[in-house]
Structure formats: C-alpha cells, structure tokens
Amino acid sequence: MVVIYFLQSNNGGQIYSHTYQLDMIRNLLGPSICFHENCKAQCETAAELRRHITGISNTNDKHGNCQEAITKCKYCNLHGKRKFIENKHYNTYHTTIKCDICNLQIKLTDLRSHYNYHKEQKNRLRLKVHNYEKKI
Q1: Cβ count near 114 (within 10 Å)
Q2: Can you tell me the distance from the alpha carbon of 23 to that of 33, in angstroms, rounded to the nearest whole number?
Q3: Please, which residues bridge with residue 70 across strands?
Q4: Running DSSP on this structure, what letter comes out for residue 136?
Q5: Long-range contact list for 19-28, CB < 8 A, 24+ apart?
Q6: CB 12 within 8 A of CB 20
Q7: Cβ count within 10 A of residue 10
Q8: Torsion of CA 37, 42, 46, 48, to 10 degrees
Q9: Residue 130 pLDDT > 80
Q10: Which element (helix H / strand E) includes 128?
C-alpha cells in the first residue's frame, strides 16, 4: 500500500510530502537519472539522486554532488551552478582578502608574506625620504 501525505501550507496550498514507500516504488522502476543535461548521472536509488542534486552525497554514493545543480554560497547570498560556486567563486572571494594598500586579492595563506613585502617597501621608501630630507 502506498501512502502519500499532503500537508496544508500557510497560504492554503498543498505541500507534497515524500514517503519511504514512494521511494521504494521509484527504486523498483530502475535507476534514477539526474535531469541536468551535462550530468545525467544514474543513481541506484531515489534517495541517492536526492543527495546528488542537493549536494549532500556521502561516500557510499556512486556519484558525488551534481556540479550542474543550482546552489547557494554558504558564505554569501550568491546563487549559481555548484561547479562555479564551490570552485571559482569560493577561491576568488572566500579564500582571499583585498589588500588595502595595493587593492589586490591576496590568498589568506599568503597574507603574512604579502604583509612583509609591504613592510619592506615601506622601509625602502622611508630611507628615500630620509635621504631626500638630508639633501634639503
């Protein structure tokens, strides 16, 4: 027997609720295929497909997180494909910091050496200023 529950939402519409029995029926029909054109991963179960698309796949899943699925950056409110958000966007905006002196994006792992570089530049400039003031 298949039991499908409908819950009432606050605005009067019905919200579909997944049930364990429905997933069992889906699994009997064969593999669940990711609907993204550039992915088409064939997951063995409906639950695996759900984890694949939502980005919470585990080590037992045949396919990892779908790189074509739309996701939200967990550090800011930007939405986009997972392959962009978790790679280029993350590396550009969340593993770097903008230098207030030279306006470059500096990787956090290089921040100390970048700071030391500006310290050396400041010391060289200070020497030039002292030498100039001695001439006057």
Answers
A1: 16
A2: 14
A3: 81
A4: -
A5: 22/46, 23/47
A6: no
A7: 6
A8: -100
A9: yes
A10: helix 111-135
Q: Which amino acid is at 124?
A: R
DSSP secondary structure code for residue 11 in this structure: T
Contact (Cβ atoms closer than 8 angstroms) between residue 50 and residue 61: no
pLDDT exceeding 90 applies to what percent of the chain?
68
For residue range 94-117, list pLDDT tens digits in order.
Answer: 998 999 999 999 999 899 999 999
Token pair listed for 59: 């080590």
How do residues 27-63 score in pLDDT, each as one tens digit?
898 999 999 999 999 999 999 999 999 999 999 999 9
Tokens 């519409």, located at residue: 13
What CA–CA distance (Å, rounded) separates 47 from 43? 9
> For residues 20 and 37, what is the distance between their CA atoms, to the nearest angstrom?
28
Alpha-carbon distance of 50 to 46, in angstroms, equals: 6
Domain ranges, ordered by start, for the chain? 31-93, 96-135
- Of 46, 50, 83, nearest to 67 by C-alpha is 83
Packing angle, helices 20-28 and 46-54, rounded to 10: 110
Other residues' Cβ atoms within 10 Å of the Cβ of residue 55: 16
